[in-house]
Amino acid sequence: MKIHSTPTLADSVCDLRTIKIKRQFFTQINELLDWKSISATIDTHYQKGKSATGTPSYDGLLLFKMCLLQTWYGLSDYEVEDRVNDSSSFSYFCGLHIDQIAPDHSTVSRFRTAMTKANAYEVLFKQINNQLEAHQIIVKKGAIIDACVVDTPLRPKGKTEHKVTRDREDLEEVTLTKDFAESVDKEASWLKKAGKYRYGYKKHHVTDEQGLVLGVHTTRASANEIANLEEVLDKADLPQSIPLKADKGYQSQNNREILAKRKLKDHILKKAKKNRPLTHWEKKFNKLVGRTRFKVERTFRGIKRWFNGGTARYRGMAKMHTQNIMEAMCYNLYRSPGIIASNCEK
Question: How far apart are CA 5 and CA 20, in angstroms?
Answer without folding.
Answer: 27
